[in-house]
Amino acid sequence: MALEDRTEAPTPRRRQEARQEGQVARSVELNSALILLFALIIAKVCGPWSADRLTKVMINSFTRFPTGDLTANEVANKLARVLLEVSLVTAPILIGVALIGFISSALQVGFTVSGKPLQLKGERLNPVAGIARMFSVRAGVECLKAVGKVIIVGYIVYSFLRSKESEIAILAGCHHFVACKTLGRLTWELLLRAAFAILAIAAFDYMFQRFQHEKQLRMTKQELKEDLKRTEGDPLVKSRIRQRQRSIAQRRMIHEVPKADVVVTNPTHYAVALKYDSELHNAPIVVAKGQRLLALKIREIAERNNVPIVENPPLARTLYLTVEIGEEIPAELYQAVAEILAYVYRLSRKVANMSDSP
């Protein structure tokens, strides 16, 4: 299907399916650039120590090598010790580079494992499709990117050597130790400049890869409709939607508790908050209700906001089971609720009179 027909943004389901297929926005150039840059930094930090240790390993290996006839086991043991010492010396650099490669990949695509890209597909063996890929936009961009890297890195090398021409020229008359040390410093400076240039190119490549990935994930209007139908019919998605709706409803309900006139409890199994406004409703309405932990939560909020709490297990249970949030209480409960509200109003007036008295 032509990309021109894909005008709709990809849905979360489409992104997840692509991720499971191993289709992610990944820049190999960015991985390589970061590995090169941090390898240079690690080598700069650990290089002197590693060089000193390797020198000692080599000196000890050759100066303390046993003389006379050696058995195969003695030679093997000696080589094993040398390899172990060399491995311990180079381990910090190798482990650091490996970690940088892993972190770079994880930052780009997260932690995803998929064997789909490794599976053999028939279209990959199609010569016509292969030729089409060779002359595709992606192939053209890769070619331009390679040429650009050669030009930029070449210019950096040329300009660096020109700027250090006099310093390099006098190395011929220097002591070999000074010459080697100077060449090492110049080489590190040159590689560091080249690494930053390659990193800049890799950053543009990463943005291009993300753009291409988003473009490939785009959907037609028909695909979008079908995807939404599948998503709406997914039991897991429905369950998550219902759970989210319940969570939102509970938060909204909890905010209504401080506005209630009274909370009727069981005392701990059920809690129902009632409010009566004669100008808006013909009867008291249930503004919040809950059982167990939610009932305790309603009680706590009521206590913090000085909302009266009345224990009436039969009424609390009946209200919880028969009246939904926002509904008026049924006529058969008028008498029981009226008695509780009358008691609460009398208590409120008594408290008010006590506070007004000198």
Fold and architecture overview:
The protein has 358 residues and is mostly helical. The chain has 2 domains: 12-64 and 73-112 and 129-228, no CATH class; 238-353, name from scop (3-Layer(aba) Sandwich), CATH 3.40.1690.10. It has 12 helices and 4 strands, in the order αααααααααβββαβαα. It has a 4-stranded mixed sheet with strand order 3-2-1-4, sandwiched between helices. A hairpin with a 4-residue loop joins strand 1 (262-265) and strand 2. Helix 2 (28-63) packs antiparallel against helix 3 (72-109), helix 2 packs antiparallel against helix 7 (176-217) and helix 5 packs antiparallel against helix 7. The protein starts with 11 loop residues before the first helix and ends with a helix. Residues 351-358 have low confidence and may be disordered.
Spatially, the strands of the biggest sheet line up as: 3-2-1-4
Number of strands: 4
Largest sheet: 4 strands, mixed
Count of discrete alpha- or pi-helical segments spanning 4 or more residues? 12
Cα gyration radius (Å): 38 Å
- Helical fraction: 55-70%
Indicate the structural class: mainly alpha
- State the separation between the terminal residues, measured CA to CA: 86 Å
Strand content: 5-15%
The total number of structural domains is: 2
Average pLDDT metric = 80
Overall 3D form: elongated
Low-confidence stretches: 351-358
Oligomer designation: single chain
- SSE sequence, one letter per element: HHHHHHHHHEEEHEHH
